[in-house]
Specification:
The chain is mainly β. 8% of the residues lie in helices and 25% in strands. The strands form three sheets. It has a three-stranded antiparallel sheet with strand order 2-1-7. Strands 3-6 form a two-stranded antiparallel sheet. The longest helix has 4 residues. The chain is globular and about 35 Å long.
Length: 96
Amino acid sequence: MQFVSYDGAYTESLTMDEARRPDVLVVDTLDGDAIGRAHGGPARLLVAPMYGYKSCKWLSEIRVTPRVIPGYWERLGYDQEAWVGRSNGRDDAPTT
């Protein structure tokens, strides 16, 4: 799946299995109020078990794709598999 920001330049991708995890959400509120622009509103992707660059701000579109398409940061060399801790040498299963 590909997630696209309003500017169209920033994208992020997850596998279908990753996107369907219960700790991966599209959010439009923060502490009970509409999420503000400074925090990525009016809607943003929240990928809790992965590093922050996977949580696409200013979400405008979600595309179902036949394969993972590298996002903005992956095209600059960041890991597609961005599980927190993985880059620090951990090899245990991602948090569920």
